[in-house]
Each structure stands twice: as structure tokens, then as C-alpha cells.
Amino acid sequence: MQQAPDVHQAEPIPAAAREAIEALLQSGDLFRYTAPENAPVALLEREFADLLGSRYALAVSSCSAALFLSLKALGLPRDARVLIPGFTFAAVPSSVIHADCVPVLCEVGDNYRIDLADFAARLDDVQAVIISHMRGHTSDMDAIMTLCDARGIPVIEDAAHSLGTTWNGRNIGTIGRVGCFSFQSYKMINAGEGGILVTDDADLVARAVIMSGAYEHNWKKHKGPRGENSADLAEAFGRWQNKLPLYNLRLNNLSAAVIRPQIPELARRVRDGRAGHDHVAARIAVSPHIEVPAPLPGEVRAPDSIQFNLVGLDEPAIRAFAAAAERRGVKVQVFGLSTDNARAFWNWQFLAQVPDLPQTRAMLMKACDVRLPVHLTAAQLDAVADILLAAMDEATQAAAA
Predict the structure, then answer these.
(1) pLDDT band for position 1 (50/70/90)?
(2) Given 238, 264, 290, which residue is the final one in a domain?
(3) Which helix (H) or strand (E) holds 171?
(4) In this structure, what CATH number is given to the domain that contains residue 203?
(5) d(Cα 16, Cα 344) in Å, to the nearest integer?
(6) Distances (CA, A) of 74 to 113, 360, 401
(7) How far is CA 362 from CA 78, 103, 160, 210, 358, in A?
(8) Do 48 and 173 lie in a common domain?
């Protein structure tokens, strides 16, 4: 049997991080506001904003925290309705509820992207939108922004899986009012946990900074573009000083020290991840039972996993395929068939009412997910593809018998 690669192992953290961590351990300056300026978290924010071409960035404890703070910083009223896709991670509707808002779900198509007709039909009674670029699959942001801008509805991009993806040349996360990213270990940049939001809106980021935990006058350590003192930002901070609750969702200097040396590695990781994904996609697409949705025109993805739909298989055959792949060492997650999967909307029992989304449900019952970390070699990528094809042969032969 072919040896399956370990798809859960991440790349080593660059040596520069170890040096920075050792210096922090010697100084004990782990809190982001200890230093008068240029703390590792502050430097990370500047570097990340520059990377994406945004004016402001705020590093926080998770992407979920970034989503929550984005909603709070928009100043939405209690029970505001926030439209989200039916295919996303449970943390997204959770952040909406945590922000005292109400999640409204819309349908998602077989290509894992928002069904624009259903999206448009639900827009009239919502006050904000979160677009989840789920597993890095970008919905039609031109159409979405046209619909939302016409109604004055702010758009938050959940770009947890999309660092490095572009839409018609623009960085995902910079198209809406605010973009939120993740540094969890299964993302392009790995700090174990952590998140960051980016925006060009001085008032929004000032509110988010204060609510993230910039008590007293620590907000003065947050700068504008290129580390400059921004008059717009200073005015916004003064306007909101002592008028907002503190949720204490800050990132610490140790995490920033782990993240910063990985930023120069991002372009290479994106390139390798796209090449690996496309190689495996071409290999497994020879099966008539496997369909890998193509990117939309204008979308250039930065994947570290692969998703595909199973075609012409009933549920027993789908389960047989997943089991056969796992026996060979490749874990295939079928979103709708994995018990308690946090990406299957019917498992979000914390919602006041679980919606009926038949199109999204049908998609999730046949949509598969396999990790493809960017460090896999060509031989390892071929091993994954060979295992998936062998598992499909086994499952379909058993079904025929």
C-alpha cells in the first residue's frame, strides 16, 4: 500500500522567530502595550497592512474575535440581521450572536460559493453581510459589492482561508469594509491561534482597537499607514475614548514574534499551495465520480486544501469511499456526513431557528475536503491522488457488486 503523507504537519517556524522569542523571554515583555512603541504586535500590524495594501490593521486573539469586533465596530443595533453563507464554519454565526446580532443564512451552490439569486432575495432586511471565502473559494465579489453598495449595507470579509487569494488583482480581505484573517495552525501563516483585521476606515478601526482592549491611552500606540501618526485616527480615538466596552481580545508579543518571520514566506507558500492543489485536482479529475469546481473568472486562489464533489454516488458509496481512503491513510471529510461537523449548518443548534437550505444541504452531503499542506512534495501529492483514485475504484466496484 502506498505511504500516505502526514497532512497535519505544518512547516517549521523560521529561525528568526526563535531568536525574537528568546529576546522576549529574556525581557519578559509579552504584553503588546509594555513597550512605548514598536512592540512586535504593532510591527506585525504595520507589516500586514502593507502586505495587503490597507491603511490599518489590528491583531487580535483569533479570526472569530476579528469578526466579532468588526460587527461591534460597525455600531449595529441589537438584533441587527447579518447575512452569512450557509456554508461556513460555526465560528461565523457564533460571532454574529456574540455581537448581539441575528444570523441570516443564504444558499450556497455546488461550487461552494454564494447563490447570488438567494443572496439578493434576502438582502432587503439585513443590516450587514459577512462573506465567508470558505476553504478559499471566493464568491463573485463584484456582484456582491454592487448589491450591497446599492443598499448601503457594509460587507465584512471572512478571509480566514484566503490569505494570498486575489480577485481581479485585488487582495481578498480588502474589498469589503473590513477583512478578517486567521493565524490558526491550518492556515497559510501559523501561530497556533490568532487573527487580524484590516480596513481603510479610521473610525471603524479606532472603535475596534478600543474594544479589543486598548484601555486608558494605550490606543496612542496604534499608528496609521507606514507607522505615521494619523490625524484621522487620533480624532477617532479621541471621539471614542471611554465610550466603548473593553472585550480584551488582544494578541500577545510571543504570537507576533512567531508570525512576523512567516510573512516573507507567504508568496512562496501561495505559489506552492496553488501548484500542489492544481496537480492533485488534475489527477483525480480523471474519475467520472470526482468533480473539482473551477475558480471563477478573476479569482486566483491560494489553497492549502482541496475540495471536490462526488458525482453519481449514493450515501453508502460515499461512506465507502471515505472509509477506503482513510484505511489507506488519507482522511476525507465529507462535510454533511461527518458527525457534528462544525461546517454543516444543521449542527448549529445554538441558532434560535435552524434554517432550511435544501441546496446547501444537498451540496454538503457530497462535498469532500482533504488537506494539502503547501510543503508536500510532488511524490507526496501523487500519493494522495493515487489513494483517492484507488479508494474510488474500491467504493464503486463494491457498489456495482
Answers:
(1) low
(2) 264
(3) strand 170-171
(4) 3.40.640.10
(5) 39
(6) 25, 29, 58
(7) 33, 21, 24, 43, 6
(8) yes
